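BUG: 3D viewer hangs when loading the predicted structure for this chain

Environment: internal workstation, default settings.
Expected: structure renders.
Actual: progress bar stalls at 90%.

Input used:
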Amino acid sequence: LRRQRQMFIRDRGKGNSNLVAEFNIHCDAEAARIVFLHRGLKCPFWLISWEVTTHCVIPWDWYDIWINRERGADGQVVSVNQNRTQTFIEKLFGKLEGFTRPRDDGSKVDTGDAESTQDVTCVIPDAVAVAAALDERVVVDSFDTFVTVELHGRETRGGICIDWYGTDQSMEKKGRWRNCKVITRCDQDLFLHHMQRIVDQESM
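C-alpha cells produced before the viewer hung:
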C-alpha cells in the first residue's frame, strides 16, 4: 500500500449484503478497515458509491447505437455489422439487459431481485469507477474526509462510515484524518465518450 499512488474503492450506501454493507466489504470487514485506516498511503483513496454511479448510466437507446443495433420494419431491434468488441459487449451484458431493460410496454421481467427490478437503465458501476480512475475529469464533485468501516452491529457490520461534517479541529481531537476523497457526482457525457472509444478502437 505504501507504493500505491492512487486507489479506487467502490461501495454502496444502500446495502446488498445487509442493510448497509456492500457484499465484498461485508465478507471481510476487518481487511477493509485495515486498508481504510492505513496511514502509509501517499494520497487519499477515492470512494465511489453505487448510488453515484446510478446517475452516470448508459441509456438503453444509447446502448443500442453503441453496439450497432437497428430497429427493423417489424419493430424488433436487431444487431447489424458488429465488430468483435460490440459482439462481446452484447453477450456480456445480455443478462443485465434481460433483467433491467423495460419492455416496449413499460413492463419488466420479474426476477425476484429487488435491486434489478428498480434499475431501468444500464448501470455499470465498475466501468464508471474505472473511467474516473483513468480520467479524473470524469469526477465532477467530491470532498475529502475521514472514512472507516463498521465491524460490529447485527445490521451494520461492514458498513462504510463517512464523517460528513468533520472539521480539521474535530478530526484531530478524535484521531481522524482526511483519508478519503468521496466522489459525489460524475460527468455522464464524458463517461459515455470513454465507453464509445472502447468500440471505436477496433475500427481505427
